[in-house]
TrEMBL record:
This is FAD-dependent pyridine nucleotide-disulfide oxidoreductase. The lineage of its organism: Bacteria, Pseudomonadati, Pseudomonadota, Betaproteobacteria, Burkholderiales. SUPFAM superfamilies: FAD/NAD(P)-binding domain. InterPro entries: FAD/NAD-bd_sf, FAD/NAD-binding_dom, NADH-Q_oxidoreductase. It comes from Caballeronia glebae. Residues 3-314 form the FAD/NAD(P)-binding domain.
Length: 392
């Protein structure tokens, strides 16, 4: 019996388990910190309060069925020499013949002073709910405090997560303003971005559309503004301090700390894998999703991490494990992106799809496209009813 252990039940781990379950002569063990999977590309909706956590999450055991052994526990360390995985609660380490590491991402603060202490990350359901509760409490409290910083929200960085979050907040603000009877002209949604231009992966006219859409809804984006320090109630650039009582940190992500704790050679906790997605010295150990750096031969740099890439890598790693067990040759990973979509609240967005030529979309309907392009996974993993929930 081959022991196949999969660490993490995000997009990548769940897909790998799905591809491998039922494999004759193999036992599949899936380990995850929570008993539920959540759609990490939709966390901004929970943070802004446009969706409840239940809508973007589902039970892992139920979706995997009986052919996958699910263990709810936190991975603390991997020992590739002993072929063992150590768990926080599990008293006995797991042994494996094949290992798939898909432990996902953590917030990257680049060591900026005060970021960890005074800004809120957006990395999982708990942190998304914390953002929502914190901001809503500040807005509700304004009638007592009269502190205008309670009406200000700063998002640090203006990458994908930030823009999608601001789009969602811009949509929600009118109802919050009405609910708490707030002075509309004093409410501010602000983003601080070090780069001179936003979202470089999109054509300029799509970026202009996104910026115009957000600006029309009161969002201020300060480009060429590098964050140097975060203090309680303020974010400092080289020459200015921006005040707000809600500060959210979205300047990028890195892979799981388990990678550093296990001593793997990695950059920002992303391990350089072979084109097969396995380690050079350990062909039985695969790193996928946000924990791996896979070279895009055309660009000469690792592919940027997305749900789409994670799912493709998981499918490939599972196929290579099956081939290896069967004594067949394993293959190199090839990736063709379907394109990129960025939502601007529930009813707008921008999209640049690949295919025959490049297709570009903006406005209404793009939020719907995002679900189709980024993760058809909800339909496959959790069923039709859950997918319909997600469209609501
Ligand atoms: P990101 O890398 O997309 O954006 C981070 C932004 O922060 C960048 O624009 C960067 O220039 C800026 N930044 C970094 N340090 C800064 C500083 N000191 N001061 C000011 N600005 C600074 O990261 P993210 O938004 O956290 O997203 C994480 C990953 O998830 C990315 O790889 C992203 O592509 C992916 N993602 C994709 C989607 C989608 O495809 N719809 C949605 C969300 C996230």
């Amino acid at each position: 019996m081959k022991e196949i252990v999969i660490l993490g039940a995000g997009y990548a781990g769940l897909r790998a388990a799905r591809e491998l379950r039922g494999l004759p002569g193999a036992r599949i063990t899936l380990v995850n910190r929570h008993a539920f999977h959540y759609e990490s590309t939709e966390l901004h909706t929970v943070a802004a309060g446009t969706r409840e956590p239940e809508v973007i999450s589902f039970d892992i055991r139920q979706s995997m069925g009986p052919t996958v052994e699910f263990k709810q526990d936190s991975v603390t360390r991997i020992d590739p020499e002993q072929k063992k995985v150590f768990l926080q609660a599990g008293p006995v380490p797991l042994s494996y013949d094949y290992l798939v590491v898909a432990l996902g991402f953590e917030s990257e603060d680049f060591g900026i002073d005060g970021a960890r202490e005074h800004a809120m990350p957006l990395v999982d359901i708990d942190s998304a709910l914390a953002v929502r509760q914190h901001f809503e409490a500040r807005l509700a409290g304004f009638k007592t405090t009269r502190d205008e910083n309670d009406l200000r929200l700063i998002v640090c960085g203006a990458g994908f997560t930030s823009i999608e979050l601001l789009g969602e907040f811009a949509y929600r603000m009118p109802s919050l303003i009405e609910l708490h009877d707030l002075p509309k002209d004093k409410v501010q949604l602000i983003a601080l971005e070090s780069a001179p231009k936003l979202l470089p992966m999109f054509d300029a006219h799509l970026v202009d559309y996104a910026v115009g859409y957000l600006a029309a809804r009161g969002v201020q984006i300060h480009t060429s503004t590098t964050i140097k320090k975060v203090v309680p109630g303020g974010v400092m650039s080289e020459d200015r301090t921006f005040d707000a009582n809600t500060i959210i940190w979205t300047t990028g992500v890195r892979g799981s700390h388990v990678i550093a704790d296990s001593g793997f050679v990695a950059k920002r906790n992303r391990v350089n894998v072979e084109p097969t997605l396995a380690l050079k010295d350990h062909p039985e150990v695969f790193f996928i999703g946000d924990d791996s750096a896979v070279l895009d031969p055309a660009g000469g740099r690792p592919w940027p991490t997305t749900a789409q890439l994670a799912i493709a890598e998981a499918t490939h790693a599972a196929a290579n494990i099956k081939a290896h067990i069967a004594g067949k040759p394993i293959a190199d990973f090839k990736f063709v992106s379907k394109g990129t979509v960025c939502s601007l609240g529930p009813s707008s967005g921008i999209a640049q799809l690949s295919g025959r030529g490049s297709m570009k979309f903006e406005g209404h309907g793009v939020a719907f496209l995002k679900k189709l392009v980024e993760n058809g996974s909800l339909l496959e993993e959790a069923g039709f009813a859950k997918m319909l929930d997600n469209f609501s």
